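U., I forgot to send this yesterday:
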Amino acid sequence: MIKRIFHKNILLIVVLSMILAACGINTSDVATNNLSEPQEETDMPTPAPENVNEATDVPVATPEIATPTPETIPAPDVTIEPTDETLPLQQSTAATPNTTENVAPTAASVTASRTNQFGEEIMFLRAGSLWAFDTQSGRERQLAENVHSFAAAPDGTRIALIRKIDEQFDVWVIQRDSNALTQLTNNERTEATLSWAADENALVFASAETADPYTRTWPQWPQWCATSDVRVFNLTADTETTIADGCDPAISPDGRRIVFAAPPTDTQDGIEGPNSTNTIRLVNRQGENGWNFAVAEGEISDNLVRDGLLVYAPSWSPDGSQIVYHRFLGYQALVDIAITEVSGSFDGQGQPLYGGAGWLLPARVSPNNQLIAITEYNYNDPRGLNGYDLWSVTVMKVEGSREIPLPSRTLDAIGERFDTLPRAQQVAWAPNGTTLAVQLPSGWSANMPPVRPDEGAALSDTGAAGEIWRWQPGELPSERLVENVDAASPIEWVPAVS
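Result:
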């Protein structure tokens, strides 16, 4: 046994000497250090090498590392839509809605995917694209292209869009923190006037059987509304339901009721197509238990609550206690006349609040329910004005009383005029309800005369871009926030998201 071990050691020394000689190491040192007295074989285990990274036949225990697994981090239940940076816009529009590639976002998926913080932002259109302006940092960012109109979800995490792609107006939703787009409708109809449910699981909108865009003038508006119905898109179930004929839907702040304008049924002045006689209807979220909230019988009469050619553009107060809408009286004394009325949302006895000219946009009620901003578009102004000179915004206090003079009579009205801003096209209340974002013509200044100055071509250009200013009613606009805003662009002042 000892001889065999000795011979093995001699052979090992020879091999090592050859290797070391090749490396330039003195082999005599190795031989001297390794020629020792042979030892008996024992059953002691060979110790594991100190460097665990070297190859060895001895198993080495490795420390446990807490590695995420599918059990500890569940995969998301929704498909994340590609952004404009990863997929060309024309490719994304070809996706068919209601498929796994186009899953409608839910409140849960929005919360899970939220990675950025956003301060308060003002949303607007520029060259047909949706942009956001941060009111604190002053930064601007583009969110989506080919946008016709939009509406922000109550919590500000998502924006519903009407996008025009290949002459088709469809409903989309974009995530505010990622710009991920989801298409909800895909048809040859024209969608318009979006409204979010309070739980953000549903969108209400109008859908017309026409290729014409939604227009706020007479007789174009009633003719568009005559081909329209009111639809609800359930984002959780990914379903679309038609609940009534009509347009201009708005869902109540508690999400339980929907108010809308019923389609006109009569014709005035020999104009082709229905353009008068309709109602404003209230239904529940399923389209049931409907009743006529306001009526227009298609003529001027002594019965104010049934007077006028049309009723249109209903909107809710933030607390849901009141509904504001407009009554179109038609052409009188060289101008179209419209009356704004306010009514408790459960009684329908409208009271006049404001008298304006032309067509009135949906009223904007302040967050504290005390002020109502009304945009007036006098598109048939008898003075021959055009562009921004056809527009104005009036802010009314919902207190006090006064009279509204009309060509045929005087109306007893509630409320007091608080302020009027000529040439203002669109407005949006700040989330705190103290100020407004308002669109004015490019180059606007406080010393402009109230009617058509001699300079400033943008004022008379109907399609000229404008600016967004910060406006405290009762004072002149104080701060220009945004430039190069599309004419008559919708405006939303969206709350901060953390």
